[in-house]
Design brief:
single chain, 756 residues, alpha/beta, Aconitase, domain 3, 3 domains, 6-stranded mixed beta sheet, 25 helices, 30 strands, 17% strand
Amino acid sequence: MAFDIEMIKHKYAQLEERITLAKNILNRPLTSSEKILYAHLWDKKPSQSFKRGEDYVNFAPDRIACQDATAQMALLQFMQAGKTKVAVPTTVHCDHLIQAKEGAAADLKSANSSSAEVFNFLESVSNKYGIGFWKPGAGIIHQVVLENYAFPGGMMIGTDSHTVNAGGLGMVAIGVGGADAVDVMAGMPWELKFPKMIGVKLTGKLNGWTAPKDVILKVAGILTVKGGTGAIIEYFGPGAESMSCTGKGTICNMGAEVGATTSTFGYDSSMERYLRATGRDDVADAANQVKEHLTADPEVYAQPEKYFDQVIEINLDSLMPHINGPFTPDLATPVDQMSEKATEGEWPLKVEWGLIGSCTNSSYEDLSRAASIAQQAVDKKLVTKAEFGINPGSEQVRYTAERDGLLRIFEDLNAKIFTNACGPCIGQWDRAGADKAEKNSIIHSFNRNFSKRADGNPNTHAFVASPEMVAAVAISGRLDFNPMTDSLLNEEGESVMLDAPQGMELPPKGFEVEDNGYLAPEADGSGVNVVVKEDSERLQLLTPFNPWDGKNLMNAKLLLKAFGKCTTDHISMAGPWLRYRGHLDNISNNCFIGAVNAFNEKTNFVKNQLTGDYGGVPDVQRAYKKEGIPTVVVGDHNYGEGSSREHAAMEPRHLGVKVVLVKSFARIHETNLKKQGMLGITFANENDYDLIQEDDVFNFVDLASFAPGKAITIEVVHADGSKYTISANHTYNAQQIEWYKEGSALNLIKKQNSLS
């Protein structure tokens, strides 16, 4: 039986009425995404039509999922909200804090020792507030959610950008910052700008070497890293229906890399098969009773251009396998063009590592298809030229794959089986020799390949591909290897070719697991004591941010003008810094250390206007904070791209940065800034970015009249005394301005709770 089956049945019982009301109000058929959105309004029954990309709307999500790195800060915030229990079903998953090094057993033992304080904190907080807890080793959050919690037509949020994985089971699942999650945990509405709709029509059928991963690699090349911003991507068509549920999850998962609010598919037979295979017959039976409400109206898919803001069509029959990268997930290269492109880009052709796993490609089907390639290598007497690593998605997947002999096949090729955890994907990889910073290439089935992401080496060229393509390239040891046309020499000097991969959608003998790693909370957690030691290096109770004084912000100095890509990784690195995710002051020592200074193109090296000296960004900012001097950060397009990492907003806020002024924001990061009481604004004329000089001082001359839709005037003063005025736009509504006034959204929640 599924978790929360009564909640799911209750939601399904409401669908027809709410969707019918919405259709009558809009006077047209609805996309699948729209049905879910209108069925989850905070006000319950739809009463108005919302403008896509314009109207802020309050929603009531069905559940929340938090991974261990982000859960720390989310729960530290929730502890300040004055509640005794979470208002909606919530889970915590320990997957990010397990470093990959020696292999599963040793790495898990090491994590349980080094992160014991954090794991114990998360377990006790979960127990106290009615939160389900998944132990270290239980699996990667998004695979566990797909196996246990996701359901067609539902809405969930998660403190991780890849929450969108649940779209593979027909959900609208959205990555958010911890402060957003706290709102919902506390029984408050969750606010989202009503998304635009991008439709992706899939025709044909996947064949040969082409995998679901190639669909999103192709889409990433079309939309780029910001092309999906503010939109839900909805996949449909015969190609979508022919695809497995976990394949759909893979596609949705990497939708985060194009900035999409989420991605989803309408309910179909593959989802039913997956629900039944994972022990959720009751959910499948319930979904079948309302299945017409769990996908778009037929008219929508018949004439998608009438109902979507943008339509993309991809013929799966002719789709070529892709390899994307390096350094950005949208640099898409069909495998038959890689030789030319790699030579042109001077990318290292020798591949040092092949890595399979992460939340996006860690299912049984993924492992079975990659294992079919590995078995061929064994049978055809090929020696793997690159090192090989595997991260199973969950204990259920791992146990079943081991039972069926899949893991043994990889081990026969000397692959290292890592823990059921994120590992290299999130930068939790102790890779031997990475400290030498040598130029090299790796290939993996993950989502992100930013500089320094996997191993901390800025010269590691990371490429993204399907698990089966990763296996083939790792066996060959060459980036330009095309398994569809190229042969390999085996140990006996024979020329052999790899056949197309074969896999199994679901395990023929069913899933099996001895201990899935789940701990249910106590029914009454009032007696549970949550301890945070005052001298802890890993955990720190939060001090509320100061409210705005209501005055114009004057004499703010420039801290950093970021050059080019400035992702959440650049603002708050992961990897070894994950250990400090529960200690705001300690983790703030990584603030902006990866961002490139536009004035010298160096990282972590900015001018201190007080002394004229150069130093690390956190050190310089702490000097400004000590003197009570406000500061401004300036950035380029899609600032805050990447994860839901709210530390990228909390750290500058904690250190005294007042304003982030950029050409454009990534969605989640912009919201995170607002939630933490920061002023996140955009250049009205993006060319004004070029006018900002290293010694500039900023005066926000009309901030005192901060209001929705009203531009902000900034007087910029150069070191020579010359000045000019620029205009900045913002997207704050009345509610969000209240967050700003109170110093943070959490401060407002506490104030409201104290008055109630």
